[in-house]
Amino acid sequence: MAIRTPDMILIDVDGTLVDSVPDLAFCVDEMMKQLGREPWGETRVRDWVGNGVERLVRRALIGQLDGEPDEAEFEKAYPVFLDLYAENTSKRSVLYPGVKEGLDYLRAAGYPLGCVTNKAAQFTLPLLKDLGIYDYFGIVVSGDTLEHKKPHPAPLLHAAEFFKVSPERSLMVGDSISDVKAARAAGFQIVCLPYGYNHGEDIRIAEPDLVIETLAHLKGELEQAA
């Protein structure tokens, strides 16, 4: 399916621009050890990422996607994780292949770019800066910037208003069902990458407008867009 030429492009962080699981998994496992419990390992943690670190900690405590841990245990664990992640936000995280190339093309082509993530600002901004991509974005909407976060449409609509662009002229690039739901609710087009964090499910099931292999592949699609 083809996409229409957008006037503005928003891009997700975790699972789209950055493979942040190595740092997140390290922090989860260290947290578990400090709680006197067995670590999970990177493969398990990878399926739990994508809805912010509070949700990740809750999932780690119960060892599954859905459900809630004992609240007292969560209250003990969460500060431990936050301290660990503050020191390990970008030590092991890397840009996915094609990200820098894709961002360079989008900037050169004159597209206003924004970043919309469910990660809290205290982790998002250092991560983007440490990996050298912060300056590509005219706005960064983090998970705690507004009252709501994805899949609510508010972060996307907030960025569209910032750039003074209508939702139907806007494009979201993400990797998860949360990105697809947010884009649909906001009236954006949605393009997804297949390699990210969608809890082990193929993102094509969520029926985005388009799936591309890397961010660099967006160039060809935009050059063909109506």
UniProtKB/TrEMBL annotation:
The record's annotation in InterPro entries points to: HAD-like_hydrolase_sf, HAD-like_sf, HAD-SF_hydro_IA, HAD_2, HAD_sf, PGP-like_dom2, PGPase_prok
Give the matching Gene3D superfamilies: HAD superfamily/HAD-like (3.40.50.1000), Putative phosphatase, domain 2 (1.10.150.240)
**Keyword Hydrolase in record:** yes
Biological processes annotated in GO: carbohydrate metabolic process; DNA repair; glycolate biosynthetic process
| Keyword list, A-Z | Carbohydrate metabolism, Hydrolase, Magnesium, Metal-binding
Tell me which EC number(s) this protein carries.
Answer: 3.1.3.18
* Enzyme superclass (EC): hydrolase
Binding residues annotated for Mg(2+), in chain numbering: D12, D14, D175
Q: In which pathway does it act?
A: Organic acid metabolism; glycolate biosynthesis; glycolate from 2-phosphoglycolate: step 1/1
Residues in a coiled coil are: none
Q: Which family does it belong to?
A: Belongs to the HAD-like hydrolase superfamily. CbbY/CbbZ/Gph/YieH family.
User: Which PANTHER family would you find in this protein's record?
Assistant: PHOSPHOGLYCOLATE PHOSPHATASE
Q: What does this protein do?
A: Specifically catalyzes the dephosphorylation of 2-phosphoglycolate. Is involved in the dissimilation of the intracellular 2-phosphoglycolate formed during the DNA repair of 3'-phosphoglycolate ends, a major class of DNA lesions induced by oxidative stress.
Q: What is this protein called?
A: Phosphoglycolate phosphatase
Q: Which organism is it from?
A: Thiogranum longum
